[in-house]
């Protein structure tokens, strides 16, 4: 850390012109056309009030998008933006117009502020905006994805109030949206810098539940889970419930908050109830999404009381398993895995779901029972066209910082584990 601290001031001065403001650059007025190839796209920077006016346009967009992303939902972004204190929320809306209609073809939401977990003090555009959000991928119309993304980058460059460095953490790197973004950056003689990269489990299969688990799990694992379910049934009546009506979701979410806080997350002060701001945001987000049929809570219950719960969010044809909690007094029965079996079968039988994003940080958790994987990464993008030595230098400094931070964390955890054994 001492080496990074010593170079921080000089690196900051070196990179300021590349990632901060462009003195004298004109601001693109809201609704002004931005030429992008043969397609004319207009881009506006939408505030929280504006986001409350585009619900119908958003629903239409996600039906045309390769990759719907619930964490870009205007309702969710609006709630998160109203809660920002030291930062501000910027949502870019890309519109395609012709003589017959004007339709939304792109949405990418950011918070503007100091880069988190960084060695250098620069302002950036960070996505996603919301706390406890797990995907930064912009939502763009598949028919004009390149044009919409190019127009949004142009808007950022020309707006002198916005930083020029975009940090997407995490973004799906093997999907069509990132492929389009890479094409756009290549045409601008630029490229994205991958800072960190991991595999995340997803559920994307044409098999039914029985076939899926026969392929995903060994016969001994399946037998063990059947034994756990049978033993748990001996302690009380088991039911699987799905709350999807707004009032039922609200009531189930209150149960979820209590269940999560009673476990290790509560002890480590990482449960939603541990932070009043997080709890308020989560309640408002779940209520807003449930009102539109985009939030549900699956529960495994014993004598009516939840032993395991999974919150599921929706954006178009994609589901997101956002948060899970279980009764840790019953951990020997694997209640989380039992519920995963139940909702996996429900997802696979639901023809309206194209795939399910686990929202996992990597593929080491129990969600790894799902066989399919996607690559997610922290990606840095310089909105300005052209190759930039300064941008590459900033990326290398940050990558070194993250590497040192990871080594220090691993060393601390190793020391802590050894200390506990003595």
| CATH structural class of the largest domain | Alpha Beta
Reading the helices and strands in chain order gives HEEHHHEEEEHEHEHHEHHHEEEHEEH
Percent strand equals: 25-35%
Question: What structural class results from the helix and strand content?
Answer: alpha+beta
Apparent shape: globular
Report the C-alpha radius of gyration, rounded: 23 Å
Number of strands: 14
Oligomer: single chain
And the CATH topology of the largest domain?
A: Aminopeptidase
State the domain count: 2
Largest sheet: 14 strands, mixed
Helix content: 40-55%
Q: Are there runs of 5+ residues with pLDDT below 50, and where?
A: 1-37
Gap between N and C termini: 29 Å
CATH architecture of the largest domain: 3-Layer(aba) Sandwich
Number of helices: 13
Mean pLDDT: 89
Short précis:
This protein is an alpha+beta fold. It has helices at residues 2-19, 48-51, 55-64, 74-83, 145-158, 176-187, 209-216, 219-233, 246-261, 264-267, 276-291, 335-349, 389-421; strands spanning 33-36, 39-46, 88-97, 102-114, 123-127, 139-140, 165-172, 193-203, 238-243, 295-302, 305-315, 318-326, 355-357, 372-382.
Short key terms for the protein model shown above:
Aminopeptidase, 14-stranded mixed sheet, 422 residues, alpha+beta, 13 helices, 14 strands, 41% helix, 2 domains, disordered N terminus
């Amino acid at each position: 850390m001492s080496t990074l601290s010593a170079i921080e001031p000089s690196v900051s001065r070196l990179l300021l012109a590349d990632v901060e403001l462009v003195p004298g650059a004109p601001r693109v007025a809201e609704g002004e056309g931005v030429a992008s190839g043969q397609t004319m796209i207009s881009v506006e920077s939408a505030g929280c009030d504006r986001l409350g006016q585009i619900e119908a346009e958003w629903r239409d967009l996600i039906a045309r998008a390769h990759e719907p992303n619930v964490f870009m939902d205007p309702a969710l972004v609006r709630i998160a933006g109203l809660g920002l204190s030291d930062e501000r929320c910027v949502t870019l809306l890309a519109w395609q117009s012709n003589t017959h209609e004007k339709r939304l073809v792109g949405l990418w939401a950011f918070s503007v502020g100091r880069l988190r977990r960084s060695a250098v003090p620069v302002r950036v555009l960070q996505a996603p905006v919301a706390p406890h959000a797990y995907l930064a991928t912009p939502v763009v119309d598949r028919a004009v994805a390149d044009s919409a993304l190019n127009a949004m980058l142009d808007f950022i460059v020309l707006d002198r109030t916005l930083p020029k460095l975009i940090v997407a953490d995490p973004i799906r790197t093997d999907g069509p949206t990132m492929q389009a973004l890479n094409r756009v950056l290549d045409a601008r003689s630029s490229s994205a810098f991958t800072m960190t990269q991991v595999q995340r489990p997803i559920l994307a299969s044409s098999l039914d539940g029985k076939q899926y688990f026969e392929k995903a799990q060994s016969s001994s694992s399946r037998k063990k889970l059947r034994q756990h379910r049978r033993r748990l049934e001996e302690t009380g009546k088991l039911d699987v419930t799905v709350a999807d009506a707004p009032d039922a979701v609200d009531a189930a979410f209150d149960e979820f908050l209590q269940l999560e806080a009673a476990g290790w997350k509560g002890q480590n002060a990482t449960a939603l109830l541990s932070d009043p701001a997080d709890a308020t945001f989560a309640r408002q987000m779940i209520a807003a999404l449930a009102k539109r049929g985009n939030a549900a809570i699956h529960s495994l219950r014993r004598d009516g009381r939840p032993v395991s719960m999974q919150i599921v969010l929706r954006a178009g044809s994609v589901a997101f398993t956002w948060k899970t909690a279980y009764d840790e007094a019953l951990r020997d029965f694997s209640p989380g895995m039992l519920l995963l079996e139940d909702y996996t079968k429900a997802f696979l039988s639901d023809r309206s779901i194209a795939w399910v994003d686990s929202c996992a940080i990597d593929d080491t958790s129990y969600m790894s029972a799902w066989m399919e994987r996607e690559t997610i990464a922290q990606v840095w993008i310089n909105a300005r066209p052209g190759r930039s030595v300064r941008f590459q230098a900033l990326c290398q400094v940050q990558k070194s910082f993250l590497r040192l931070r990871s080594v220090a964390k691993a060393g601390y955890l190793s020391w802590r584990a050894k200390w506990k054994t003595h």
